[in-house]
Amino acid sequence: MSSAPEDRIRLIDTDAVPAHIAVIMDGNGRWARQRNLPRIAGHRAGIQSVREILEASVELGVGALTLYAFSTENWKRPPSEVRALMELLREYLDREIDNLDRNDIRFETLGDSSALGPVIRSELEHAVERTADNGGLRFNVALNYSGRDELLRAVNAILTQAKDDPRLLEGVTEEHISRHLYTAGLADPDLLIRTSGEWRVSNFLLWQIAYSEIWVTDTLWPDFRRPHLYDAIIAYQKRERRYGGLTPALAR
Question: What is the C-alpha to C-alpha distance for residues 71 and 66, in angstroms, rounded to an integer?
Answer without folding.
Answer: 13
